[in-house]
Amino acid sequence: MKNWKLFSNMKVTRNALMNAARAHEHVVQAELLGNR
Hints:
It contains one helix and no strands. It is mostly helical.
């Protein structure tokens, strides 16, 4: 059960990191478009 919880936390963290990366990419693209 402890391992399952750890695995679940890892999955959540990975999703959060991917979401953050996607959001960051969005911001960078918006800035590039705004600078043109």
